[in-house]
């Protein structure tokens, strides 16, 4: 069973692209000396404030390097939250998008969580308004509500389960084996992939990631023909026709693992292109090729880079520490409610280690996420 439930628009009320506002806030490029000076300044501030920087694989390479050089981490969204929760620092600087800051706050309600730019969001989060989603769930009370990590605290508070891309299959299969029917939100491509793999009865919300939605199968086939020995890595937020061409379908952590451990010398990568910064560090010598997107004809800018992730910069880290701006707040009762579905997932993967993504040498161990 598969229904289109929500037609997410990519335009605001004035007809402007939803990403235009994000691109307008992307920090301008810095010179080498400016980057070095800002990095040193940010490192000193992190130390002075006893803060730790937790960065996503999709943010600027300087931020990834700064996180690792100062004792923070570069990871997927869930591992970012878990790392922040388990770290001694009482101030977490989260370089990523808003739902990641919220997840960090939900798991560490007593800590101060800062973000370089609070306007950094995600099309999956935007495309799943909590009131609409709750109303839909209310008319299907017989279904378990399973939501992806890329959702607001309010949507998580309405859910029975939160999942990430690498444990979603195992959790949905578990629910199906129990005879449960499912509401899935918000990514339609990931939901469709899981539905096909598990045969579960799922109602799919109609959200999409504007980055992964732009990868194109025809152009990927042409690229594969040019690089017949390349291994093709695809994130399951991509369209079905692209997923079908993959040698490895997986989360960011699983894709990194595939490059590090794979025998091929060339890899075509269908996810945000800034993951290649970490791939190059962890798998030097391997050739990485960006999977093709729709290019200039696309609705989004279609450059395989997330505009909201791109809003994170060194100046934002400095500003949030110096001025205390960009603090994430989650109303405590809502946070407690949202934490239930995250804890349920964490308990499930702890009890079912086979649901975990393969461990990756040199990475923070994790179960993988967006
Ligand atoms: S890359 Fe896609 S899923 Fe990730 S934050 Fe950007 S819009 Fe959301």
TrEMBL record:
It holds the Pfam family NadA. Pathway: Cofactor biosynthesis; NAD(+) biosynthesis; quinolinate from iminoaspartate: step 1/1. Gene3D superfamilies: NadA-like. Its EC number is 2.5.1.72. InterPro entries: NadA, NadA_sf. It comes from the Bacteria. Keywords: 4Fe-4S, Iron, Iron-sulfur, Metal-binding, Pyridine nucleotide biosynthesis, Transferase. Its cofactor is [4Fe-4S] cluster. This is Quinolinate synthase. It comes from Ideonella azotifigens. The lineage of its organism: Bacteria, Pseudomonadati, Pseudomonadota, Betaproteobacteria, Burkholderiales. The gene is nadA.
